Amino acid sequence: MSRKKTSKSKAGSVPAASALPSPNGARPARPGTARSGHEAPPNGPQQRGRPSLGGGGDFYDVAFKVMLVGDSGVGKTCLLVRFKDGAFLAGTFISTVGIDFRNKVLDVDGMKVKLQIWDTAGQERFRSVTHAYYRDAHALLLLYDVTNKASFDNIQAWLTEIQEYAQDDVVLMLLGNKVDSAQERVVKREDGEKLAKLFTGVRTALHGDQCQDRPQRRLGLHCHSKGVETAYHEGAQRTSLPAA
Ligand SMILES: Nc1nc2c(ncn2[C@@H]2O[C@H](COP(=O)(O)OP(=O)(O)OP(=O)(O)O)[C@@H](O)[C@H]2O)c(=O)[nH]1
Ligand SMILES: [Mg+2]
C-alpha cells in the first residue's frame, strides 16, 4: 500500500469560475477501482509499524474525494465545519460562493483515510462551476433541509445532474438535515426513506445518532462498505454530532 503525504494546503476555495484550478488536479487516489486517466489505486496490504505521523497527521493510506451538494441553505457548509472542526456555524447565514474544500484524515480500522471534502454553492448561478467537479468525486452527499419542502422536492433535479456529470459508480448518500428543528419540520422521515428507496443505485447511509460511535460513519463510508443501500440518513449540525 502506498503512503502519501498531503499537500501543505488543508483547505481552499474557488470563488469564481474564471479562477478555477483543474477540478481533477488535486484528485486523490481511489482504492479498488481503475478509471482511465485516474491515479492508480493504493490497495496493497495494510502496513504495520507506520512511522509517527507527527502533529499534522500528514500521511495517509487511501484518499477519497467527497462532494456536498444540495439547495442553498440546507446546511452543507455547516455539516463540513461540524465534521472538520466539531463546531456549529451559528449566526448569519453566509452563502458559499463557488466551491471550497477541506481535508481531513481519519483513522479507520487502523488505516489513515484522507477525505478531501468539497463544499459546493447551492445557488443556481454557481451550478456550472460545480459541474466540473462531479467527475472525480468518489462520494456525493446530497442534502436537503427537513424544514424546507422545496429543498426536498429539488432532490430529483439534483439526481438528474448527478446522473449527467458524476461517475456511474459514485457513492451517493441522501441526508435530511436540521432534524433538531422538530417544530418546523415539514418533510417526514418516511418520505426521506421512500425517496431513498425509489432510486435504484442511490445508496444512502445512516448518520448522526446511529453512527456516533465512529467518526467516519458520519460520512457513511463505513456504512456503505457494509453494503447499506437504502437506509435513510438524518443529521443536525446544531446539536447532535460530537467533535471528531
Ligand atoms: N437548526 C439547524 N440549522 C442549521 C443546521 N445546519 C445548518 N443550519 C443553518 O442553516 C443555514 C444555512 O447553512 P449553510 O451550511 O451555510 O448552508 P449551505 O447549504 O452551505 O448553503 P449554500 O452555501 O448557499 O449552498 C445557516 O443559518 C445555519 O446556521 C442544522 O442542522 N440545524
Ligand atoms: Mg455553503
Structure characterization notes:
- This protein is globular.
- The protein is of the alpha/beta class and 244 residues long.
- It has 6 helices and 9 strands.
- It binds guanosine-5'-triphosphate and magnesium ion.
- Guanosine-5'-triphosphate binds at residues 72-78, 89-90, 93, 95-96, 121-123, 177-178, 180-181, 236-238.
- Guanosine-5'-triphosphate binds next to α1.
Short description, anyone?
This protein has helices at residues 76-85, 127-134, 149-153, 155-165, 189-198, 221-225; strands at residues 4-5, 11-14, 59-60, 62-70, 99-108, 111-120, 139-145, 171-177, 233-234. With 244 residues, it is α/β, with parallel strands linked by helices.
Distance between the termini: 26 Å
Secondary-structure element pattern, one letter each: EEEEHEEHEHHEHHE
**By helix and strand content, what is the structural category?**
alpha/beta
Radius of gyration: 17 Å
Number of helices: 6
Mean pLDDT value: 70
Number of strands: 9
Percentage of β-strand residues = 15-25%
Low-confidence stretches: 15-22, 24-57, 200-231, 240-244
Main beta-sheet annotation: 7 strands, mixed
| Largest sheet: spatial strand order | 2-5-6-4-7-8-9
Bound molecules: guanosine-5'-triphosphate, magnesium ion
* Inertia-based shape: globular
Task: Tell me the helix content.
Answer: 10-25%
Topology:
Blueprint: E1 4-5, E2 11-14, E3 59-60, E4 62-70, H1 76-85, E5 99-108, E6 111-120, H2 127-134, E7 139-145, H3 149-153, H4 155-165, E8 171-177, H5 189-198, H6 221-225, E9 233-234
